[in-house]
Design a protein that fits this description.
4-stranded antiparallel β-sheet; 111 residues; 6-stranded antiparallel β-sheet; single chain; mainly beta
């Protein structure tokens, strides 16, 4: 079992996403076999530009409000919402408020 306080994990700036940090809560260094867990913080007005991967995303909104775009769909989400983004779908995020969310991806997507 691995137990850690998320706030003790060092936040790292996101490449090409000014105002956004990522904490790799569980990933390759912990030898987790299937999924990486990441904790994002986005400052109001910051954006993660459109991109895509060959893996899915499973996201849980902890706080704040985002506009999430996936393919031709767009949704405004806030605390308590969950989002699933299928593999190979272009997606982006825009922070309407300071926002925090968990994002799980298959370990193959982790550095």
């Amino acid at each position: 079992m691995i137990v850690k306080k998320v706030s003790d994990v060092e936040p790292q700036p996101m490449a090409n996403a000014e105002g956004t940090t990522i904490r790799w809560v569980f990933s390759r260094p912990e030898n987790v076999p299937n999924f990486a867990m990441r904790y994002f913080h986005m400052k109001k007005g910051s954006a993660i530009k459109e991109h895509f991967h060959d893996w899915e995303h499973e996201i849980y909104m902890v706080k704040g409000k985002l506009i999430v775009t996936a393919g031709n769909e767009k949704a405004e989400v806030s605390e308590g919402y969950a989002i699933y983004i299928p593999p190979n779908i272009p997606h982006s995020f825009l922070a309407i408020e300071d926002s925090e969310f968990l994002c799980m991806i298959p370990i193959k997507g982790a550095p």
